[in-house]
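Lecture notes, continued. The same structure-token format from the folding unit now serves as the input rather than the output. Read the line below as a description of shape only.
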């Protein structure tokens, strides 16, 4: 058993997120966990990691199973430590061992105690088994794979943009190499080249991967199973996202037909009861039909429950054709240039995709347009 839920119910106060859910995650699974906004996907991952305890049922986890959990809340983490140090946080045990070895080494010099010497040798051995001698090298390699240059490795984590921070955390998790990777919207902050890198990496990952994502194309390429959280239940599909879509339409049709058939049947039976319940000769038959209807397991109607969302940006008065003009704009942070002597025009009705690699300054540019970021011209 790697990781799973056994008849788990989880509630936030009166609100049931999931009821009586059973789910077994197998080694090397590639699972997409999907569902509308607010159905409880992130919550479910927290139940799996043990961060939240279920109200009923159990979370089952193998004694040796290690879990890695990548999520957006991690981005609020902030530190002056260099990105190399942050990523090397993956090797907690190794670092602890190094400290212990140093301590014991000092004592050993003073006392020459034999049991200490044994302890020392044991710890050195463990360090070697854990590959403790090349953690530096391994960390650098992964960070470089994710696009960090050699001289950026010593820079404080704090100084990086959201997308680059996400990459550092990704590197840390990859170095920990957990048996199960839980990823809550991993592509949110990543630019296209790093998403491609992640896809390639995950395809060969030796372990199970559960991905929460609203990106159907990413899911289509990444997963071979889909678990949908819908109406407080988990629904399982053996295929990628496209498979899920066609299969779900069929399931909904089947359920709808079954529901309608049952409703017809119920109506007929009720009519019979109405007609004959007062007739002595048929009263017994009517009575038994009533009993049968009571016992009947009712099929639920399909509710295509979609978030009822209407977004309306209303404007007081129609603006002119040109909404915003940038002329000869320059902006830099220290020696990092964001834009230099550049211009642009935004017209009414434009639909513009602002693209660019992580950390190039998309957010800064939006802030300049909004008027809250200083610049020179
Ligand atoms: N700590 C909490 N206490 C109470 N309610 C919460 C808490 N965290 C989340 N919720 C509620 O639980 C529900 C599920 O939230 P969750 O964040 O798990 O949804 P989600 O499926 O991940 O949504 P999204 O797709 O928007 O990320 C929401 O209604 C949310 O408001
Ligand atoms: Mg979420």
């Amino acid at each position: 058993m790697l990781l799973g839920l056994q008849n788990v119910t989880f509630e936030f106060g009166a609100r049931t997120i999931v009821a009586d859910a059973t789910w077994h995650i197998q080694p090397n699974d590639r699972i997409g966990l999907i569902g509308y906004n607010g159905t409880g996907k992130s919550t479910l991952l927290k139940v799996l990691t043990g961060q939240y305890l279920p109200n009923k049922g159990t979370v089952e986890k193998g004694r040796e199973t290690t879990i890695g959990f990548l999520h957006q809340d991690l981005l609020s983490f902030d530190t002056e430590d260099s990105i190399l140090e942050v990523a090397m946080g993956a090797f907690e045990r190794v670092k602890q061992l190094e400290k212990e070895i140093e301590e014991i080494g000092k004592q050993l010099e003073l006392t020459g105690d034999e049991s200490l010497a044994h302890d020392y040798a044991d710890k050195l051995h463990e360090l070697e088994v854990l590959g403790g001698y090349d953690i530096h090298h391994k960390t650098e390699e992964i960070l470089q794979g994710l696009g960090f240059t050699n001289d950026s490795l010593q820079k404080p984590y704090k100084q990086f943009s959201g997308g680059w921070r996400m990459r550092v955390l990704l590197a840390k998790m990859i170095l920990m190499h957990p048996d199960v990777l839980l990823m809550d919207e991993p592509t949110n902050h990543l630019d296209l080249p790093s998403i491609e890198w992640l896809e390639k990496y995950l395809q060969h990952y030796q372990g199970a991967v559960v991905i929460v994502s609203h990106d159907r194309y990413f899911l289509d390429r990444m997963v071979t199973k889909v678990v949908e959280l819908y109406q407080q239940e988990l629904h399982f599909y053996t295929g990628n996202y496209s498979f899920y879509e066609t299969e779900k339409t069929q399931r909904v049709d089947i359920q709808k037909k079954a529901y309608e058939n049952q409703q017809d049947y119920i109506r007929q039976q009720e009519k019979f009861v109405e007609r004959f319940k007062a007739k002595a000769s048929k009263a017994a038959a009517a009575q038994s039909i009533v009993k049968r209807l009571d016992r009947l397991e009712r099929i639920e109607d399909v509710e295509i429950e979609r978030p009822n969302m209407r977004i309306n940006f209303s404007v007081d008065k129609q603006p002119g054709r040109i909404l915003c003009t940038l002329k000869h704009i320059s902006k830099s942070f220290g020696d990092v240039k964001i834009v230099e002597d550049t211009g642009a025009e935004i017209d009414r009705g434009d639909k513009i995709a602002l693209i660019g690699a992580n950390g190039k300054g998309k957010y800064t540019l939006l802030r300049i347009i909004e008027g809250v970021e200083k610049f020179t011209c």
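Point for the exam: The radius of gyration is 29 Å.
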